[in-house]
Amino acid sequence: MEMVSGFRPDDDGDSMRLSMRVTYGDWFAAVERPSGVFMLLLAGTLVFGAIMAPFSLRSAAAQAPANKPIKLVVLGDSLTAGYGLPADAAFPVRLQKALKDKGIEVEMSNAGVSGDTTSGGLARLDWSVPEDTTAVIVELGANDALRGIDPKIPRAALGQILERLKARKIPVLLCGMLAPPNFGADYAAQFNAIYPDLAKAFGVPLYPFFLQGVAGDAALNQGDGIHPTAAGVDIIVKAMLPSVEALLSTKSGQRS
Predict the structure, then answer these.
(1) Where would a tag sit more exposed on the chain, N or C end, judged by fewer CB atoms within 10 A?
(2) Residue 17: φ, ψ to 5°
(3) Exposure string for 87-103, b = 16+ CB within 10 A, e = fewer
(4) DSSP per-residue string spanning 150-214
(5) Is 72 helix (H, G, I), strand (E, B) or coil?
(6) Residue 74 forms beta bridges with which residues?
(7) All residues at 6 or more sequence positions from 129 whose CB lies less than 8 Å from its CB, including other chains
(8) Of 109, 116, 227, 252, which one is the catalytic site residue?
(9) Is 12 known to be catalytic?
(10) Could you give the CA distance from residue 52 to residue 62 in angstroms, rounded to a whole number?
(11) Is 227 annotated as catalytic?
């Protein structure tokens, strides 16, 4: 069978090259032997690409954090841990769902330990709050107040927690607690002042009272009168949600 270009199967490489020149004419010759202008353009493109490559890498690196997941840690006591409640009714779980309903996806860490004091929270801070944490909600102090611990101790412990998180550039929402009345007005005044004082000193947002809307309401508390029911937790979450959204927006730029 005769080929269109005159190429025959037993031709060698030179014959095929010649036949291709016959078929495609000057176009093939131009591609095979680029002109001087073409070579200059090619060299210029390669040099420009080499110069711009580092800037492209920096741009990609700058955009990478936007793709990181939001990781929120709730550092607290039994009010965070979900004492007396099913696992899916604990405060961090319900908060995570509320954020998701607002279009904010969060990886939530329940770092609540029942019976923990502010000093206990400080002692476990580093392993409770991993390096890749986006933000922290601090809910500690109820057990200090219930035990009548000298207010200077929770003030110092919470101050160190805030100082260390600030050094790590992790935004914090500080949740306030109120002392029970049985230790007297003087004790309550000293204890209750801890949270607004520290929030102002460290420049962090304050949610004034974690149990706002729930404390003292028998229908929203378990039999001990201290720990909220599932319905009580939902009220806390609903009331605190705007503050948490604001906290996350400062770090991630993600808003509802």
Answers:
(1) N
(2) -65, -45
(3) eebbbbbbbbebbeeee
(4) -THHHHHHHHHHHHHHHHTT--EEEEP----GGG-HHHHHHHHTHHHHHHHHHT--EES-TTTTT
(5) strand
(6) 110, 137
(7) 73, 75, 111, 136, 165, 168, 170
(8) 227
(9) no
(10) 16
(11) yes
Q: Which amino acid makes up residue 172?
A: V
| C-alpha distance across the termini of the chain, in Å | 72
Give the pLDDT band (50/70/90) at residue 128: very high
Between strands 135-139 and 106-112, the pairing is unpaired
Backbone phi, psi, residue 203, to 5°: 65, 40
- Residues linked to residue 207 through DSSP beta bridges, in sequence order: 175
CB 240, CB 248: distance < 8 Å = no
Asked if the model's pLDDT at residue 134 lies above 90, the reply is: yes
Is 78 labeled as catalytic in the residue annotation?
Answer: yes
- pLDDT value of residue 21: 38
pLDDT digits (tens, 9 = 90+) for 8-67: 334 444 433 333 333 333 333 333 344 454 444 444 544 444 444 444 333 333 333 556
Q: Which of 12, 26, 132, 224 is catalytic?
A: 224
Tell me the three state secondary structure of residue 24: helix
pLDDT digits (tens, 9 = 90+) for 79-107: 999 999 999 999 999 999 999 999 999 99
The whole-angstrom separation of Cα 12 and Cα 6 is 13
For the chain, where are the alpha helices, taking DSSP H only? 13-24, 26-32, 36-63, 78-81, 91-101, 118-123, 125-128, 142-146, 152-167, 185-192, 194-202, 230-252
**Confidence tier at 68 by pLDDT (50, 70, 90):** confident
User: CB atoms < 10 A from the CB of 183, how many?
Assistant: 17
- Looking at residue 10, its pLDDT comes to 43
